Automatic annotation (TrEMBL):
Protein name per UniProt: Glycosyltransferase
UniProt-recorded Gene Ontology molecular function terms: glycosyltransferase activity
InterPro entries (alphabetical): Glyco_trans_1
Coiled-coil segments on the chain, per record: none
Length: 417
């Protein structure tokens, strides 16, 4: 099996999309007879970073670093001119434009993404149906069942829709230390309890709720790790003495904050999923599972696919500061509960490595390459009706809020008028 991986953004990158795609490509490479990585390389640093993906040959796209729209367009136009495109058995991409262009020029495509595009931007539904029902689009690797269900509702053949969870790299946590040691290493008070969040510190991650809860828990210290600039969350936390904003950390330093945590926090808010649509089953879930620390998260449909309340995590009602406060008090005051949840989470993580993900994807690709290709069913009347209704709701939502993502609640409400 020969795979041409196509990524539309330059490296190096600290974004989750780059981590997922590059880790998957590197882990899949041993299952191939030849693997290439098609990527924009606007400078020497980007070229060098792309060459660090082991087992994958570099194929440079003719594309500038910015603007992103132009870069994505040129990645799609460039890839069809490359020899690797003609030699590969399939193109593996997370970009809708690259997938579409590859199909037009006769190549087979495997798509791998976390977003439920048909639900989030309904006007695209008719085009998405034609794209994902195309006989040469062999599979859509969905990062969650939450996303898979969106394509099933669209009418795409279920055999093409496969849920394969993300993973983590065990080597990042190869030298575990006790919380007291990690706290001392970071200059923190070993006698204090620390609630740690890692990831981008911005208004899209539900962190305003965390700052509100911190004001109600003065005996706990909150470390929000991943700030890159002064923004609304930094402003909210400025006068809250038990909230510390920590700048973005490199992987080795970040691990120390993970080990210093008495609780690892995924903000229990529906905003990242419902309002911004940029976070579906966050990547940090898998890293947190492996850390041997108790996890607190929101009881949302995507998170529940991996985290189970009272078994491997503590899940609380989303967007309720009192529920968050109660959960944090339980985890920091009940050592037995915290230890039990942490141990179960760590045990579950053993099956969620990048290698495990690649093994599953390799089997799926082999199966789908051999599957009989059939013409898609025509776009039906019921699909058209739903498309028009949701598109109007999306347009009204966009005009009212200026947000491009249609919230999940809008998908089930009765249409107005």
């Amino acid at each position: 099996m020969k795979i041409l991986f196509a990524f539309e953004n330059a490296l190096p990158s600290a974004q989750a999309d780059a981590e997922v795609f590059m880790a998957t490509a590197e882990a899949l490479a041993p299952f191939t007879t030849q693997a290439w990585l098609h990527i924009p390389a606007p400078n020497a640093a980007s070229l060098a970073a792309a060459r660090l993906v082991r087992g994958v040959a570099m194929v440079s796209a003719w594309a500038p670093g910015r603007p992103a729209v132009l870069r994505h367009i040129l990645c799609g136009l460039t890839i069809v001119c490359r020899r690797a495109f003609r030699e590969a058995d399939l193109v593996y991409t997370r970009n809708l434009w690259v997938a579409w262009i590859s199909l037009i020029f006769g190549q087979r495509v495997a798509f791998d993404h976390y977003r439920p595009w048909p639900d989030q931007i309904p006007p695209l539904q008719r085009w998405l149906y034609s794209l994902f029902s195309h006989p040469r689009l062999i599979v859509n690797i969905c990062h969650s069942d939450y996303t898979r269900q969106a394509y099933l509702r669209l009418g795409v053949d279920g055999a093409k829709l496969r849920r394969v969870l993300n993973g983590f790299e065990p080597q990042r946590l190869r030298n575990p230390v006790l919380p007291t040691e990690a706290k001392s290493h970071l200059g923190l008070d070993p006698t204090r309890k620390y609630v740690v969040y890692t990831g981008r510190v911005n208004h899209k991650k539900g962190l305003a709720l965390v700052v509100r809860a911190a004001k109600m828990l003065p005996d706990l210290e909150f470390l929000l790790v991943g700030s890159s600039a002064e923004g609304p969350i930094e402003a909210l936390a400025r006068d809250v003495p038990n909230v510390r904003i920590i700048p973005f950390q490199q992987p080795d330093a970040l691990v120390q904050y993970i080990y210093a945590a008495d609780v690892l926090l995924i903000p229990p808010s529906r905003e990242p999923l419902a309002q911004f649509g940029s976070t579906v089953l966050p990547l940090k879930v898998f890293f947190y599972l492996s850390a041997g620390r108790p996890i607190l998260a929101g009881d949302t449909s995507d998170v529940r696919e991996v985290l189970r309340h009272g078994e491997n995590a503590w899940l609380c009602a989303p967007d309720q500061p009192e529920a968050l406060v109660d959960g944090l008090m339980r985890l920091t005051e009940d050592a037995g509960l915290a230890a039990r949840l942490a141990a179960a989470a760590q045990a579950d993580s053993a099956a969620l490595t990048w290698t495990a993900r690649a093994t599953r994807i390799s089997s799926i690709l082999t199966e789908r390459l051999q599957a009989h290709r059939t013409a898609p069913a025509p776009w039906g009347r019921q699909q058209s009706m739903r498309w028009r209704q949701l598109s109007w709701r999306w347009l009204r939502h966009l005009r009212r809020t200026r947000f491009w993502i249609l919230p999940p609640d809008e998908l089930t409400d009765e249409p107005n008028g």
